[in-house]
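Hey all, quick one. A colleague (J.T.) asked me to put the NAP job into the tracker so the inputs and the structure tokens live in one place instead of scattered across chat threads. No bug as far as I know, just bookkeeping. Sequence used:
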Amino acid sequence: MTAIRTLGSTGPQVSALGLGCMGMSALYGESDRTESIATIHAALDAGITLLDTGDFYGMGHNELLINEALRTAPAAAREQALTSVKFGALRTVEGAFTGYDGRPAAVKNFAAYSLQRLGTDHIDIYRIARLDPDVPIEETVGAIAELVEAGHVRHIGLSEVGPETIRRAAAVAPISDLQIEYSLISRSIEDTILPVCRELGVGITAYGVLSRGLISGHFTRDRELGPGDFRAMSPRFQGENLRHNLDLVDALRKIAEQKGASVAQIAIAWVLSRGADIVPLVGARRRDRLAEALGALDVTLDAADLAAIEEAVPAGAAAGPRYPENQMAHLDSER
Ligand SMILES: NC(=O)c1ccc[n+]([C@@H]2O[C@H](COP(=O)([O-])OP(=O)(O)OC[C@H]3O[C@@H](n4cnc5c(N)ncnc54)[C@H](OP(=O)(O)O)[C@@H]3O)[C@@H](O)[C@H]2O)c1
């Protein structure tokens, strides 16, 4: 993979697809450590340079996994890899999420621990996972800017925040990218968030481009989901909503077959087609899934293809919101 994109007007150059490592440690049921590391190695070998994680994914597990994968990767691949780390989520020993902490002292504390776990001397892009409603974004971003000044962080990112917060953050320091859900069935960024990002030169790292597997073409109506699986609580994966959403996938499958591509490749290629300032993060945790995702880079969608895709899955076609109600409440981006 040689395709490169630049994150915003001030961010780094990265591979056109990033690897989201969350599912290797949390939220999508069991994962295999050996296969996870092999997947990160295969991604680096294929030219993926952007590895996305969060300190709360498996409460440190994901950063330690990335540490091991980078330590055991060839030096050239390791040197090209960029880490994108989210912080701020507060958890209990049992794993419950209890809020967010964006106070400057907390930001620096989170960063100190992440650097240890990652085994690196800097984090390439650092961002709070959700806005802390009790701390002005200026203070949180200001603290990351001090980490940049000290050489511990290279770039400042944002996650799931709306236009007003993006403007306030960008007034404090250069912002490389906003990480936010964007897919054929999650298009709410298009009206106001994406235009503001473009106006301010803030790139997008898009997550959930397969809607957590729902529009990958591999998800089936009868799939069993374990208790720790996010999808067991996600409204889009329940009952009638799931039936409706998988009907959309069937419509997409017809287009995929005509293109000689898979459903997942069409869904990823569609996000890639939305602008050179958008970098999809694919959540592959196995080498076969990664290979499929990389194949999206070879899929070219012309105007007729895009029209057919939009007809099969019009904006707003999904049944159910993208998060359960209690988690929607944390999304500054949905206000
Ligand atoms: N900022 C935020 O708020 C936020 C929130 C969520 C995620 N993220 C980041 O974004 C990354 C991507 O998100 P995501 O994992 O939800 O995205 P995703 O790519 O929409 O979903 C990943 C899931 O799709 C399934 N899948 C099926 N075919 C696939 C293929 N060819 N390639 C990849 N996955 C395939 C996999 O399930 P199976 O393994 O069961 O096949 C995988 O668990 C995360 O890893 C995380 O780093 C950020």
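Adding what we noticed when we looked at it: The CA atoms of residues 182 and 288 lie 23 Å apart. The first helix runs from residue 33 to 45.
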